[in-house]
Automatic annotation (TrEMBL):
Superkingdom of source: Eukaryota
Intervals holding WD repeats: 50-82
Gene Ontology terms, MF aspect: actin filament binding
Entries under SUPFAM superfamilies matching the protein: WD40 repeat-like
Family of the protein in this entry: Belongs to the WD repeat ARPC1 family.
Organism: Candolleomyces eurysporus
Protein name according to UniProt: Arp2/3 complex 41 kDa subunit
Length: 395
């Protein structure tokens, strides 16, 4: 089945999140507003605009059961949006509730917990705000995970037990924290990450293989395995009970987002402009191919760039390569090269999210990117990457 491609905007889609039945999607177009879109024919049209933030919205998440949206922004705030009848007109509107994050730098990433009674907000303040609802005062309050974070937190992901939280940071580390809140959570059962879990307990800390920012983190469906992607063009899979860490080095540009599709499969994407598929088990992991079946990976060629992926195969890259290596420039000349990429996404993929789940496995994923596109991919449609699998280093 061919990917479904929707050109939403001429500006970057910084974040997207679907509602439970996939009839609506909430997106941010690199601005201080979030838009709720619904399908109309072959297009997605704007239904409502959520306007409360002062600066760019960095992340969005939509709780499937409670139908609440949470947005995080560079203005250091988060808002929880809930459908409520307007007291004057009776019309159903999205009402915002401000969350007191107590951070002095931008909020960078937000995710609801599995039970939807908490959410985690990463920030540039070297802290993660764990937010829960205070029934007595009717507001959202935050407790902060701080130590030993030494730089901006770039991503978070919840463990299925609703207590453990993985975080990737610009201090070159992926960590697993306990976000246990006594007033909210039941005492969790022991896991491979530990049994005693007071708030801010460090249950695991892992370094990027070559010292890169950790852009993305994710627990496997069971919660027993952690994956993280770094700016050194690696993806790492951690088995804490092993202990074993598998690092796959990519001859491509860095990944910035990932999602597990099953206990043995991951889809990740980033600056290379196409989703890559990884498969494996506790015995080892490898790059299995790509969901983008364009001909870029299998194109014939020789010399520098042959068999390379996505953006490294583009005319734009060839132009800069020639200028750098050979001192040649075709910009503006008769020999000007085509700058269109051979991938479906024409710029960095900023987010990969599960779209359809059947029998506990993700059968479709959605991606959004700097090119303003939203694409739905069938995870079973994996194309081999000619000349690349042998280049992926596993250790």
């Amino acid at each position: 089945m061919a990917p479904q491609v929707y050109a939403l905007s001429q500006t970057p889609v910084t974040s997207h999140a679907f509602n439970a039945d996939r009839t609506k999607v909430c997106i941010s177009l690199n601005s201080n507003e979030a838009q709720i879109l619904s399908p109309k024919g072959s297009e997605w049209v704007v239904n409502e605009t959520l306007s409360e933030h002062d600066k760019v919205i960095t992340s969005i998440d939509w709780a499937p059961n409670s139908n609440r949206i949470v947005t995080a922004s560079q203005d250091r705030n988060a808002y929880v949006w809930q459908e409520t009848p307007d007291p004057e007109t009776g019309k159903i509107i999205w009402k915002p509730t401000l969350v007191l994050l107590r951070i002095n730098r931008a909020a960078t990433y937000v995710r609801w917990s599995p039970k939807e009674d908490k959410f985690a907000v990463a920030s540039g303040a070297r802290a993660i705000a764990i937010c829960s609802f205070d029934e007595e005062n009717n507001w959202w309050v935050a407790k902060q995970l701080k130590k030993p974070i030494r730089s901006t937190v770039l991503s978070v992901d919840w463990h299925p037990n609703n207590v453990l939280l993985a975080a990737g940071s610009a201090d070159l580390k992926a960590r697993v924290f306990s976000a246990y809140i006594k007033e909210v959570d039941e005492r969790p059962s022991p896991t491979v990450w530990g049994s005693k879990l007071p708030f801010n307990t460090i249950c695991g800390e892992y370094s990027s293989p070559s010292g890169g920012w950790v852009h993305a983190v994710g627990f496997s469906p069971s919660g027993d395995v952690l994956a993280f992607a770094s700016h050194d063009s690696t993806i790492s899979i951690v088995y804490p009970s092993g202990p074993a860490v598998y690092n796959i080095r990519l001859p491509a540009l860095p990944l910035v987002s990932l999602t597990w599709t099953s206990e043995n499969g991951i889809v990740a994407a980033g600056h290379d402009c196409r989703p890559l598929v990884f498969s494996g088990s506790e015995q080892g992991w490898q790059e299995a191919g790509t969901l983008d079946d364009s001909k870029s990976g299998g194109a014939s060629g020789s010399g520098f760039g042959a068999g390379t992926p996505g953006r490294l195969k583009s005319g734009a890259f060839a132009t800069f390569r020639d200028a750098d290596v050979r001192g040649q420039s075709s910009i503006g000349g008769a020999g000007q090269t085509d700058t269109k990429l051979t991938t479906i996404h024409q710029n960095t993929i900023t987010s990969v999210r599960p779209y359809e789940i059947v029998n506990g496995e993700v059968t479709k994923v959605s991606t959004s990117g700097v090119d303003g596109s939203l694409v739905l991919w069938d995870t079973n449609e994996v194309s081999a990457i000619t000349g690349r699998l042998g280049a992926a280093h596993l250790r």
